[in-house]
Design brief:
It contains eleven helices and no strands. It is mostly helical and 303 residues long. It has one domain. Helix 1 packs across helix 2, helix 5 runs antiparallel to helix 7 and helix 9 crosses helix 10. Belongs to the complex I subunit 1 family.
């Protein structure tokens, strides 16, 4: 329990510095400095922003469904915390034999938090943002589950630690390169990141499902989103890049994956919504199904 609590605290500190990294990288992409005043090179900026956010006034819309409105951000944050139980420690913490199934359950439950927060605000903009986000998340979960199954059949189990054993000689990315791009695009869509950030399309939905949230409620939604980004980057490194937990290279690869999330945001414009749906149902789904049949056939032939 102590190991898990330490992990959660470190993840929260990591979220703070990921936001700083994002603002710095986006600043240099847009030919400006980014935060550089608070502390040395702006290193204390995330803590300043966090304090300001939590000391802001907490507003409650008069016609909102108060209890659901209040609990939804806490529910989203709790799901993000639950995911970190799967962090593949080698000693002194949980070792899930069915970690992949637990991951799919937690990501599936995230839909309800977004849907309830959008509906309970009793705002047309929040409801539209929530509906678009739910449709997008449910669609991409199908492809994500199939891509995950494609790689799970190589390790003969659901434990993420097994990826370290089965990638000792060769990383899985070398024979599933197209699957990696499908997986990464699905991760972007699942975490509502650009170019798939339709839940928060500012130009047409005024910040989407979280438009009525302020102060702590908004901070919880924000923390949940960035914790999911860090976890999906971790999962990408585990599945495709060797999962060498003993090595510092693992954490360098993990940081690089987080950087790629930010780089994509600074480089690509937002997709059109119908193209987003076409992408998962007509491209990712058939590709992952074909790969699943191909890998299954190869394994049956070898066995």
């Amino acid at each position: 329990m102590v190991s898990y609590l330490i992990t959660v605290v470190l993840v929260l500190v990591g979220v703070a510095f990921v936001t700083l990294l994002e603002r710095k990288v986006l600043g240099y992409i847009q030919l400006r400095k980014g935060p550089n005043k608070v502390g040395f090179m702006g290193i204390l900026q995330p803590f300043s922003d966090g304090l300001k956010l939590f000391f802001k006034e907490q507003t409650f819309p008069t016609y909102s469904n108060f209890m659901i409105y209040y609990i939804s951000p806490v529910f989203l944050l709790s799901l993000s915390f639950s995911l970190w139980v799967l962090f593949p420690f080698l000693v002194n913490v949980y070792n899930f034999s069915f970690g992949a199934l637990f991951f799919l359950c937690c990501t599936g439950m995230g839909v309800y938090g977004v849907m309830l927060s959008g509906w309970s605000s009793n705002s047309n903009y929040a409801l539209l943002g929530g509906l678009r986000s739910v449709a997008q998340t449910i669609s991409y979960e199908v492809s994500m589950a199939l891509i995950l199954v494609c790689l799970l059949i190589f390790i003969f189990g659901f434990n993420f630690l097994d990826f370290m054993l089965y990638q000792y000689y060769v990383w899985f990315i070398f024979f599933s390169f197209p699957l990696f791009f499908c997986w990464f695009s699905t991760c972007l869509a699942e975490t509502n990141r650009s170019p798939f950030d339709f839940a928060e399309g500012e130009s047409e939905l005024v910040s989407g499902f979280n438009v009525e949230y302020s102060s702590g409620g908004f901070a919880f939604i924000f923390l949940a989103e960035y914790m999911n980004i860090i976890f999906m980057s971790l999962l990408t490194c585990i599945m495709f890049f060797g999962c060498d937990l003993y090595s510092i290279k693992f954490f360098i690869k993990w940081t690089f994956m987080v950087f790629i999330f930010i780089w994509v945001r600074g480089s690509l414009p937002r997709y059109r919504y119908d193209k987003l749906m076409y992408l998962t149902w007509s491209v990712f789904l058939p590709l992952s199904l074909n790969y699943l049949l191909f890998f299954s056939g190869i394994l049956m032939f070898l066995i």
